[in-house]
TrEMBL record:
Its cofactor is Zn(2+). Its EC number is 3.4.11.2. Residues 227-438 form the Peptidase M1 membrane alanine aminopeptidase domain. This is Aminopeptidase N. The keyword NADP does not apply. Residues 443-542 form the Peptidase M1 alanyl aminopeptidase Ig-like fold domain. The keyword Metal-binding applies. GO terms for biological process: proteolysis. The lineage of its organism: Bacteria, Pseudomonadati, Planctomycetota, Planctomycetia, Pirellulales. Keywords: Aminopeptidase, Hydrolase, Metal-binding, Metalloprotease, Protease, Zinc. It comes from Stieleria marina. Aminopeptidase N is involved in the degradation of intracellular peptides generated by protein breakdown during normal growth as well as in response to nutrient starvation. NCBIfam families: pepN_proteo. SUPFAM superfamilies: Leukotriene A4 hydrolase N-terminal domain, Metalloproteases ('zincins'), catalytic domain. Gene3D superfamilies: 2.60.40.1840, 3.30.2010.30, Neutral Protease Domain 2 (1.10.390.10), Peptidase M1, alanyl aminopeptidase, C-terminal domain (1.25.50.10), tricorn interacting facor f3 domain (2.60.40.1730).
Length: 868
């Protein structure tokens, strides 16, 4: 299969200045007529224009109005080659496509009977022959013709400039986008949709119509999305001086979508999961995610659309930067500390794991077979951490200067990560050349820190050293890796009072392999707090006693490190217990953590959301990353024992706390109520871990009495993971009530797929045969199989039955929806980290998948990398 290399980038032989698209919509036989005005690229003199396609049926071609004979071009379903073209001309093609059979959800497809498109990265070629690459930017005019009855609404990018009734039961609408854009930002939506309207007045006084388009039954669930959009628009003006640039901003919610959402110019298409919300159907987390995804796609209007990527290897240019922007936005809307902790927990669970397996790649990859495989947590989340480091080093004002220069230089252009780095450096008269290494090296650096105290000199020395752990296999970006620039935020605490010694607060910059940093003039030995706010995406390796960690957990003024000290403390204890479990020894009581746990719960200086995070134990998969050979059973036994033991020691306190949190009045979605629900539900999980009729009843009561989905779903998930006799009744009741609402039904599947009770795996197998399950809907597949595949102790059941189940579904899904299948198959990427028995069983599935005769290239690429 063809490998694309970053080093092979060449500018196109022609530019496209203008695009005129005409769609005659039909589910089986949609006709797309495309007129492109092309201009030879004088830097790349060639008279040949190669337009790519995919699964297209070519009906006709003409140049400057003259139809070509068969011998004047060569064409296949995926390539159209025109020779001897003049320097400027108009090329017209007509093709037929079949939206209703398009199960890949890329290109033009149908979802719940409506038409919709998805073009990033390379879906536009499934609509028409084109120069389907982001550096070709053009103006678009789009005419849509469709049935008035099935497609009363027909949308595309930009402004609606004309419409007419065609008299035969069909009508026509014409859209024009005044901005140049790459074809991956093209969008079309047509169907039976209703609109929730709002407006926004920009800083310079322009009125923008805001339109959220949804299926009629969902019209009451759009207000949160609308408010989120308004907040995002305001925030981008306030923080970055960026205004919206069209008269209308549309968001369409669709049920079948491969990812979260898509930032098409002026016409975002969203997975309905990230639009629709009501207190009865969406949890607090859903509300938060909706706000974040709406913001993310809106922010792309500048970071992605106005300034886009020269080629797909530069994806982090727009994604890392836009994730950074949405993280800052959420931090400003909620709590910066809690947001940071949530993000880092996600980074460690997903990106750190990716960075240590066969899919490890630099944030700017070197090669791909399917670009869709590189929409990864490395490109997105690690990419955002790299952007954050510029911000940490430059401060908000310096970062803003860099952004301003970036837009001044590159507005309307398709550029590279180097261009961004250069703008940041030039605007601040500094040099970021060493940052290049972050873009070209894969793997998570380890930062080793030791401290030395010189009593007579009153001096503390922190010695720091960075290195990369070796990765198995010959992976790109892992040879001859050099030290990367690491901003390391450090503070010192008085060892007796716990007070911050604020004059020592600093951001140290480690740019070499190792360096010593000294803190002078200290009266007595302080406690160092290192890598505050997680100022660099590394694994911190610092020898600290349990007492020192407990001290930081109690006193650190940096909320992130306060939380992280607790996590590190718990991790150490849990790993020791896992060893005891594996050796058949009795397990130690987690005394030190348990004491700290009780203190946090009564600490008035932190909010409930922070408390919830501080008492949440590290995930099983994160604990696994710290073992030489992952032992899922021992980890599970240890973590369950740990939880039960802490709960047992504080049963009365937890019961009282749950009771007082549950006594809050009716549902409200102010921040404090959200925080209190979050804590309440973590506390409930501790209580139910005690496995007693009384504690089960607390969960059952919460389930049946809840007036909002957050409390109800949390109680259901906890019951689904318990031996409570109310478990089945709760699951049945939930299903009875919500089976008609796809997003809530997803939750019903997900809570069962995340359960680790005995027999959980056969339940997942059984649910895959449930009448509500379908492989045609990505949300449904992810809520059952995606959730199950990260449920460590169940997926990695020693007999390999979990692997078999996933293997079956990868094979079933891959021919229809390659992107979805390739996400699922990635669960096998960690196989080298397990014992030989499990390795064998996972390899068996990988080989079984690899030997499938018509394997799609997405899955092929992941499996080949894993097997290498
Ligand atoms: N840019 C899209 C992702 C497209 C994924 C294509 N397989 C959503 C986002 O990151 O905002
Ligand atoms: Zn994005």
């Amino acid at each position: 299969m063809q490998v694309v290399y970053r080093s092979d980038y060449r500018p196109p032989t022609f530019w496209i200045d203008h695009v005129e698209l005409e769609f005659d919509l039909d589910p089986h036989n949609a006709i797309v007529t495309t007129k492109i005005t092309v201009r030879r690229n004088t830097d790349q003199p060639s008279r040949t224009l190669e337009l790519v396609g995919e699964q297209l049926k070519l009906l006709s071609v003409s140049v400057d109005g003259v139809a070509l004979n068969d011998d004047e071009y060569t064409a296949s379903s995926d390539l159209l080659v025109l020779n001897d073209l003049p320097a400027r001309c108009e090329v017209q093609t007509k093709v037929a496509i079949s939206p209703v059979t398009n199960k890949a959800l890329s290109g033009l497809y149908q979802t719940s009977g409506n038409f919709c498109t998805q073009c990033e990265a390379v879906g536009f070629r499934r609509i028409t022959y084109f120069l389907d690459r982001p550096d070709v930017m053009a103006r678009y005019q789009v005419t849509i013709r469709g049935d008035k009855s099935t497609c009363p609404v027909m949308l595309s990018n930009g402004n609606r400039i004309a419409s007419q009734d065609l008299g035969d039961g069909r009508h026509e609408v014409v859209w024009e986008d005044p901005h140049v854009k790459p074809c991956y930002l093209f969008a079309l939506v047509a169907g039976n949709l209703k609109c929730h309207r709002g407006s926004f007045t920009t800083a310079s006084g322009r009125d923008v119509a805001l339109e959220i388009w949804v299926e009629p039954q969902n019209i009451d669930k759009c207000q949160h999305a609308l408010v989120s959009l308004q907040k995002s628009m305001k925030w981008d003006e306030d923080v970055f001086g960026l205004e919206y640039d069209l008269d209308v901003y549309m968001i369409v919610a669709v049920n079948d979508f491969n990812m979260g959402a898509m930032e098409n110019k002026g016409l975002n298409v969203f997975n309905s999961k990230y639009v629709l919300a009501s207190p009865e159907t969406a949890t607090d987390d859903d509300y938060l995610l909706i706000e974040a995804v709406i913001a993310h796609e809106y922010f792309h209007n500048w970071t992605g659309n106005r300034v886009t990527c020269r080629d797909w290897f530069q994806l982090t240019l727009k994604e890392g930067l836009t994730v950074f922007r949405d993280e800052q936005f959420t931090a400003d809307q909620t709590s910066a500390a809690v947001k940071r902790i949530d993000d880092v927990a996600g980074l460690r669970a997903g990106q750190f794991a990716e960075d240590s397996g066969p899919m490890a790649h630099p944030i700017r990859p070197e090669s791909y077979i399917s670009m869709d495989n590189f929409y990864t947590s490395t490109v997105y989340r690690k990419g955002a951490q790299i952007i954050r480091m510029y911000h940490t080093l430059l401060g908000q004002d310096g970062f803003r200067r860099g952004m301003d220069l970036y837009f001044r230089r590159h507005d309307g252009c398709a550029v590279t990560c180097d261009d961004f780095r250069q703008a940041m450096a030039d605007a601040n008269d500094t040099n970021f050349d060493l940052f290049d290494r972050w873009y070209s090296q894969a793997g998570t650096p380890e930062l080793f820190v030791t401290s030395a105290w010189d009593e007579s000199a009153g001096r503390l020395t922190l010695s720091m050293r960075q290195s990369y752990p070796d990765l198995a296999g010959d992976l790109p970006g892992t040879k001859d890796r050099k030290p990367v620039p690491l901003p390391i935020r450090v503070g010192l605490l008085d060892a007796e009072s716990g007070a911050e010694l604020s004059q020592y607060n600093d951001v140290l910059l480690l740019e070499t392999e190792s360096a010593d940093f000294q803190f002078e003039g200290l009266d007595r030995q302080p406690i160092a707090s290192v890598l505050r706010d997680f100022s660099a995406p590394v694994r911190l390796r610092m020898q600290r006693s349990d007492d020192e960690l407990a001290f930081l957990m109690a006193h650190d003024t940096d909320a992130f490190n306060r939380w992280d000290a607790g996590q590190t403390l718990a991790t150490g204890m849990l790993l020791k217990m896992a060893q005891q479990a594996a050796d058949g020894q009795p397990l130690d009581e987690p005394k030190l953590f348990s004491d700290a746990f009780a203190k946090i719960l009564t600490d008035d200086s932190v909010d409930e959301a922070f408390k919830a995070l501080a008492i949440t134990l590290p995930r099983e998969s994160v604990l696994g990353q710290e073992m030489d050979v992952i032992d899922p059973d021992a980890i599970h036994t240890a973590r369950e024992f740990f939880r039960r033991s802490v709960a047992g020691s504080h049963r009365d306190q937890l019961t009282a706390l749950h009771q007082s949190l549950a006594a809050d009045g009716p549902y409200s979605n102010d921040q404090q109520s959200i925080n209190r629900r979050r804590l309440k539900n973590v506390v409930l999980a501790y209580l139910v871990s005690l496995d007693t009729p009384e504690t089960d009843q607390i969960a059952a009561d919460q389930f049946s009495g809840a007036d909002n989905m957050t409390d109800q779903q949390a109680a259901l998930a906890i019951l689904a993971n318990s031996n409570a006799e109310q478990r089945i009744a709760a699951l049945d009741e939930f299903h009875r009530r919500y089976h008609g609402d796809p997003l809530v039904l997803d939750k019903w599947f997900a809570v069962q797929a995340s359960s680790s009770r005995a027999g959980a795996l056969s339940e997942v197998r059984r649910l895959s045969g449930h009448s509500g399950f379908t492989i045609d809907n990505p949300n449904r597949v992810r809520s059952l199989l995606g959730v199950f595949s990260v449920n460590q102790s169940v997926f990695h059941q020693a007999d390999g039955k979990g692997y078999e189940l996933l293997g079956d579904y990868v094979l079933l899904i891959q021919s229809g929806n390659p992107q979805l299948a390739s996400r699922l198959v990635s669960a096998f990427n960690s196989y080298r980290r397990f014992d030989t028995g499990r390795q064998e069983l996972m390899l068996r599935q990988l080989k079984r998948i690899a030997s499938e005769p018509n394997l799609c290239k997405d899955v092929h690429e992941i499996v080949q990398r894993a097997l290498k």
